[in-house]
Design goal:
It contains three helices and 39 strands. The protein has 522 residues and is mainly beta. It folds into four domains: 120 residues, no CATH class; 113 residues, Immunoglobulins (Immunoglobulin-like, Sandwich), CATH 2.60.40.10; 159 residues, Glucose Permease (Domain IIA), CATH 2.70.70.10; 69 residues, no CATH class. Strands 20, 23, 24, 25, 26, 27, 28, 29, 30 and 32 form a ten-stranded antiparallel beta sheet that branches. Strands 11, 13, 14, 16, 17 and 18 form a six-stranded mixed beta sheet that branches. A five-stranded mixed beta sheet has the order 1-9-6-3-4, with no helix packed on it. The chain is elongated and about 125 Å long. The N and C termini lie far apart (119 Å).
Length: 522
């Protein structure tokens, strides 16, 4: 009985070893697909950890064979072709255990690797002893020309307009973000105008433009409608190849979103009577010759073959003659009267509910500065036929405030005419108002709405008091002290008594009477 058990045990062990031998005797066969990768890169294959013989075949061509313990990396780019490629890695065992190791690189990046066992230490598959071809890897590598990058239209990724209700002359801010896969070229602000009853005044047209670059951009426009009505705002973005899209992303199937157009309601300000202004030149209106009146044809600019209309009056003057502010206000803009002709410069001043413009002058004030009624703001420029163009426009400041003339008809051909409203817009005839006589010297400055900043000194001792004479001291002796005072206020400081000491009862004993010069503010 005991003998039979031994026979059964030996049989089971033999069967187990046979099964193990069958399992581990199976060769390794692997198939790997890589790519497609674009042409232009180099490919390197490293073979290492070899026991016993490793062969490399690329597209049916033998390119490498190395033996036990050897290691080598080769450039296989020259054996590859555009399209599908086959790389075979074959390992042969001549006896004992077997091992392998492979690394495939595309440029400096590893795209595939595999290894088994450790040469000289431990064979693969639990030190399998199978002879012959024991491992075969087939790498299917696809290489192809890169697809041409599809040049898609750019996108508007955000679009906003605020506020949605304003008064004539107030600013409307239009914010936007755009992007493109290739490169951006410009953004355009478009506008469509209706009157308050919903009747169309002007159809969609470009009113502003901004050059941009890169693949993403965020920015804003500002517009100041010069007439009461309803205004629709839209955006066009154009890429470097000329493709475009709008705020609705209509060219890309309304993706990534529909952001407009957006309407803004513009109301006229409450009617108010303009104050009696001061005549902008020395003397009075009756002493001056008007060279060109309000509403006369201005033959330096045409729209649809018809001359523009003059928005102010041209007052004859002499070069160097002073020009005065008609009322107190803020200088909103200083501009060149012409890019072509020597016409001097212009000044726009915003007052309470209206603006005045002075053209063909040499300014003596700067942008954003406060000016008072009757202040000299410029002198007449030395141009051919010297004169002052003086214009008055109701409403807040806008780009229209500086226009010396406006079209009397619309023009689709001339973009400069398209961007301007029709005459008279909000301009009024300066000769329809009354003026105070302007004396040779302006009157006392008046600031009707602006309070000057209170003037006050602010002295501070910024160094320790240093006694220059060494002690001990005698009664009645003069002692010299050195110190530094800084004035951080906005008015000069003067003083003639310096008190030292920390308690009021010591003031009489520790006071020096010094004569100190005035210190100007920092």
């Amino acid at each position: 009985m005991r003998g039979r058990l031994w026979i059964i045990a030996l049989t089971l062990i033999s069967l187990f070893l046979s099964i193990q031998s069958f399992v581990y005797a199976q060769p390794i066969n692997k198939s790997i697909s890589l790519g497609p990768y674009p042409t232009g890169d180099r490919y390197y294959l490293r073979v290492f950890n070899v026991d016993d013989v490793s062969r490399v075949r690329v597209n049916g061509r033998d390119v490498l064979s190395i033996g036990y313990y050897q290691e080598r990396e080769i450039d296989i780019t020259g054996y590859l072709r555009e399209g599908q490629n086959t790389i075979e890695l074959i390992l042969e065992n001549t006896g004992g255990g077997w091992t392998y190791g492979y690394v495939l690189r595309k440029g400096g990046n590893v795209i595939w690797s595999d290894s088994c066992g450790s040469v000289g230490k431990e064979g693969c598959n639990r030190n399998d002893q199978t002879k012959g071809i024991v491992a075969r890897h087939v790498i299917n590598l696809a290489i192809q020309q890169p697809l041409q990058q599809q040049d898609r239209p750019p996108n508007v990724t955000s679009f906003s307009v605020s506020p949605r209700e304003v008064l004539v002359g107030q600013a409307v801010r239009i914010g936007f973000s755009v992007r493109d896969d290739v490169g951006l070229q410009r953004v355009e602000l478009w506008r469509k105008d209706y009157d308050l009853q919903g009747r169309l005044r002007q159809d969609w047209r470009e009113i502003r433009r901004q050059s941009i670059s890169g693949r993403e951009f965020s920015g804003s426009f500002e517009d100041r409608p010069s007439e009461a009505g309803v205004y629709e705002y839209g955006l066009h973005v154009v890429d470097s190849s000329g493709k475009w899209n709008c705020e609705r992303n209509s060219q890309t199937g309304f993706s990534p979103g529909v952001y407009g157009p957006i309407k803004v309601v513009v109301q006229a300000p409450a009617e108010g009577k303009l104050p009696k202004l001061q005549w902008p030149l020395v003397g009075e209106l009756s002493e001056r010759k008007i060279l060109l009146s309000f509403g006369n044809d201005w033959t330096w600019g045409y729209c649809n073959g018809r001359p523009k209309k003059h928005t102010g009056i041209d007052i004859k003057a002499s070069p160097g003659e002073p020009v005065f502010a008609a009322d107190s206000g803020i200088v909103r803009e200083i501009f060149s009267a012409s890019k072509t002709y020597n016409w001097g410069e212009g000044i726009v001043i915003e007052h309470n509910g209206f603006t005045t413009v002075y053209i063909h002058v040499i300014p003596k004030v700067s942008k954003n500065s406060l000016v008072y009624r009757g202040q000299e703001i410029a002198v007449i420029a030395n141009i051919e036929g010297p004169h002052l163009h003086f214009g008055i426009r109701k409403g807040g400041f806008s780009e229209i405030s500086k226009r010396g003339a406006l079209p009397q008809v619309n023009s689709r051909e001339n973009i400069y005419c398209q961007n301007d409203p029709l005459f008279p817009e909000n301009f009024i005839d300066p000769l329809s108002l009354q003026y105070e006589v302007n004396p040779l010297q302006p009157s006392k400055p008046m600031w009707p709405t602006i309070s000057p900043t209170p003037q006050s000194p602010k002295p501070e001792i910024i160094s320790d008091l240093k006694i220059l004479e060494p002690g001990p001291y005698r009664v009645g002796q003069t002692i010299t002290a050195e110190f530094t005072i800084q004035n951080s206020g906005n008015a000069p400081i003067t003083f003639d008594v310096l008190t030292v000491g920390g308690r009021l009862k010591e003031l009489s004993q520790k006071s020096w009477k010094l004569k100190v010069a005035a210190l100007s503010p920092l």
